[in-house]
Amino acid sequence: MSLSSVCFRTPDGARVRVYAGGILGRTPNADLYLQDPRISEAHALVSLRGNGLQLLELRGMLFLDGKRTSAIELARGQQVLLAGSLLLTVEDIHLPSHALVLYGVRDEPRELSASTYSLVLHRPNDVVLVPGYREGAEGYLWSSADELRIQLRDQPAELVAPERVWTLGESVLRVVAVPTTGFVETLSAAPRDERLRIIARYTSIHFWRTTEVLIMHGRPAMLLSELVRCGGKPVPWEIIAREIWSRQSERHLLRQNWDRTLGRIRDQLRRAEIRENLVQVDRNGNIELVLGPHDEIVDET
């Protein structure tokens, strides 16, 4: 079991592997630390989108083939220009066929998209999963090459394997591998009107049912995450669109981007057999999330 990642070669010849969700920038805790005054602290983000990895513009600029762009579909051999003459070469890309999901923690299920997590025990039955390393935590999960390891308290570290469970306090932890190719059914088919649990993480958004999960990435996830930030209430489409395409000044081009992304959302929901009225637009151009009485939203943006 492994995590999606890309290996960059920096101008000085160093090779650095960055996992999905990792930051490139000048901040000392960046996954790819670039000490250069032309680089922003949070310059760009590696994001898993569909079956590929993208490099997304954050506070810095990205150029590919001499043209500025806000997102780059990463491919082996690419040379990405960040600033001035600072070129990164894509050495290789690793895309596993399954995503790893952790159960037994607060706000479960949690996809393990970062390279390191700390397990913090607040109460005997309340385990919180925190991205990164936290000194004194009750346990840790981290990826190494193509392996995922877990260590609880003073016990030795061990490989995470299917069907294994671990106990922390009164919580039972288990890691499940689910296919990354769209909507997955792991048990028998579930009723189409059952409760939805929507977890928004901005560059990804997860729709969980009892036995299934749909994960959206990229612009569709950003659009829906913006609606979650608004509490699901109606909001004019242009306000949301200008948050996502902040550098696009021409309204007709903004509308084209909006319509294309909204169409992708509806197509994915339809193929996943999720309620088609989940996202609605009224005659005045307001968009909203239409939730059922038992649906739940978790905002992790």
UniProtKB/TrEMBL annotation:
It comes from the Bacteria. Pfam families: FHA. InterPro entries: FHA_dom, SMAD_FHA_dom_sf. Residues 23-82 form the FHA domain. SUPFAM superfamilies: SMAD/FHA domain. Gene3D superfamilies: 2.60.200.20. This is FHA domain-containing protein.
